[in-house]
Amino acid sequence: MPKYMLLMYHPSDRDYVPSAEELQAERPKWAQFAEDLHASGAFVANHGLQGPDAATTVRVRDGQAQITDGPFAETKELLAGYFVIETPDLDGALEWAQKIPSATYGAVEIRPVWG
């Protein structure tokens, strides 16, 4: 069965990030989403990511490694985490992506997994 990665992006503008209270209130939605995903058999993997301040970027140019702290590009959205799911087609991935709680204030990018 095809696999899809659901990449969860959150706004980088802190004015649009939910407060600690709102995030706490969101926990039951996340728990239900995870439970539904597992129960359906579509779950493959999931992890949240630390912020871009914890990132290191590596590029190799002319045989030399260039290492920089943080991401290279400035963006309006930050990659916050991902789910890898198995579903018969893109329509199934679209249905799951719409159920991710942070889709109401962020974005979910869907990419087919190679191999």
Can you tell me about this structure?
The chain contains two helices and six strands; from the N terminus they run βαββββαβ. The longest helix has 21 residues, at 20-40. The chain has a domain at 41-115: 2-Layer Sandwich (Alpha-Beta Plaits). The strands form two sheets. Strands 2-5-1-6 form a four-stranded antiparallel sheet, with helices on one face. A two-stranded antiparallel ribbon has the order 3-4. It is α+β, with helices and mostly antiparallel strands and 115 residues long. The protein has helices at residues 20-40, 90-99; strands spanning 3-11, 43-48, 56-61, 64-69, 77-86, 107-112. The mean pLDDT is 90. A hairpin with a 2-residue loop joins strand 3 and strand 4. It is globular.
Shape: globular
Distance between the termini: 11 Å
CATH architecture of the domain at 41-115: 2-Layer Sandwich
N-to-C series of helices and strands: EHEEEEHE
Entry summary:
The chain is an alpha+beta fold and 115 residues long.
Name a few traits of the molecule:
single chain; alpha+beta; Alpha-Beta Plaits; 4-stranded antiparallel beta sheet; two-stranded antiparallel sheet; 6 strands; globular
